[in-house]
Design a protein that fits this description.
414 residues; alpha+beta; Cytidine Deaminase, domain 2; 3 domains; three-stranded antiparallel beta sheet; 11 strands
């Protein structure tokens, strides 16, 4: 007997396939006679839009993921099919592959979760990837099959259920009893509120009136003289300076202001450190270089890639491989892969030295190096592995080495 979960899964796949076939059949035609589209207006008052430290972190992470070269391979060879074309070139009619990856990563870092609905054709091949607002998605576990589904609140007010194989889901870490990722901005609530309070205090201090003063009168100062001193001081205060005569029996003391600009700088450093810790990023990437020392830019980027990007890249790759490729494709060697080498390029001299050593030791083909440098491949011998003439396997016999063979031939001739 078919379980309820299996029935829901089959229904969802049939629905997606039928929708894809219908869209392919009717073609691209739009009727604006009864247009009721969605408009975007107003001011964004979210933490992401009002905190420059968090904005810079999310921008760096999302841009890094979007700019990493993404390709589909089969046994180390680049391949192309409908899934790779949709993901890399045309996820949906509204955005490019760059925008899709960047917006998905922004949602992951702003809300803790990024969701994209997979739409398929009648052959169950991906035809469209649609981003969904994480606020409208709730993961649920089906009672009978214990499989993961996503409850999605539609624009029409209805609730729809999508099987986990039809939804790309990238997230931050989750607690032991949860499936959704933890929102990193909520984790930073105390830090952002403290930073906001310090900024508001600093701004109010800078906007406040100039220094304050204390006027002291001696017992021998009469009322008329007091009034003259007060009027004279009011003029001095209003004009923000000038000449002020201190009458006998009158003392003027300035109230010391406690605000120090260095306090704001220290607070900003603390905020950058906390934000960097939550997003698992080297604080140097937030332009805080005090006490930091790196021998080269490559060393800094390697730390960024190893500590920050690799877990994120691995999560994306597994989501794409599991949900955009069929089991048959995966078994025959198909897989998606981001190339993090794009962020680890050294300076020109170091890079060329690495290429030369790789070619001389049979690691790289000359044509592969030309391709990495965006030059056309030459073919022929350039498409072959080479080995230096002064290198031999450690177990080779002396007689098999070219120098020994040359000496033997010379001895025979004599």
């Amino acid at each position: 007997m078919i379980e309820r979960g299996e029935i829901l899964k089959i229904f969802q796949r049939v629905k997606n396939a039928a929708f894809g076939a219908y869209m392919a059949w009717k073609g691209v035609q739009y009727d604006f006679s009864s247009w009721a589209g969605k408009t975007f207006w107003g001011i964004d008052n979210s933490t992401l839009a009002t905190n420059e430290t968090i904005f810079s972190v999310v921008t760096r992470l999302s841009n890094s993921m979007a700019t990493l070269p993404l390709k589909m391979y089969k046994n180390y060879q680049i391949e192309h099919n409908s899934a790779s074309d949709v993901l890399i070139n045309n996820p949906n009619p509204n955005m490019t592959g760059f925008e899709f990856i960047r917006n998905l990563e922004v949602a992951r870092n702003e809300k803790g979760n990024g969701y994209a609905l997979i739409e398929r054709d009648i052959r169950l091949q991906p035809t469209r990837l649609t981003l969904i607002n994480p606020d409208y998605v709730v993961p649920v576990i089906e009672n009978n099959t214990k499989e993961l589904w996503y409850e999605v609140l539609g624009d029409d007010g209805n609730r729809y259920y999508v099987h986990n194989m039809e939804m790309i889901h990238v997230k931050h870490i989750s607690s032991s009893s949860k499936i959704s990722g933890i929102n990193p901005i909520k984790v930073l609530t105390n830090a952002t509120e403290f930073d906001k309070a310090v900024r508001e205090f600093s701004l109010s201090e800078m906007k406040s009136a100039p220094n304050s003063f204390i006027l002291k009168y001696g017992s021998n100062v009469d009322t008329e003289k007091k009034q003259r001193v007060i009027d004279d001081f009011k003029r001095f205060y209003k004009d923000n300076g000038g000449i002020l005569f201190q009458e006998p029996g009158v003392e003027i003391d300035e109230l010391e202001r406690k605000y120090v600009a260095a306090d704001t700088f220290t607070t900003e450093r603390i905020t950058r450190s906390r934000v960097a810790n939550v997003y698992n990023m080297p604080v140097t990437m937030l332009n805080d270089t005090e006490g930091q020392s790196y021998s080269s830019n490559e060393q800094l980027m390697r730390m960024y890639v190893d500590l920050t990007l690799m877990p994120i890249v691995r999560q994306y790759e597994q989501e794409f491989n599991r949900k955009l490729l069929t089991p048959t494709e995966r078994k025959t060697g198909f897989y998606f892969k981001f190339s993090v080498k794009a962020l680890l390029r050294a300076d020109t001299a170091t890079q060329m030295d690495a290429y030369m050593k790789g070619i001389r030791t049979g690691i790289y083909k000359p044509d592969e190096v030309r391709t990495w440098e965006e030059l056309p491949p030459e073919g022929g011998n350039s498409d072959k592995l080479h080995v230096s003439g002064d290198l031999y396997p450690i177990d080779s016999l002396p007689a098999e080495r070219s120098g020994a063979q040359t000496n033997n031939n010379a001895g025979n001739e004599e």
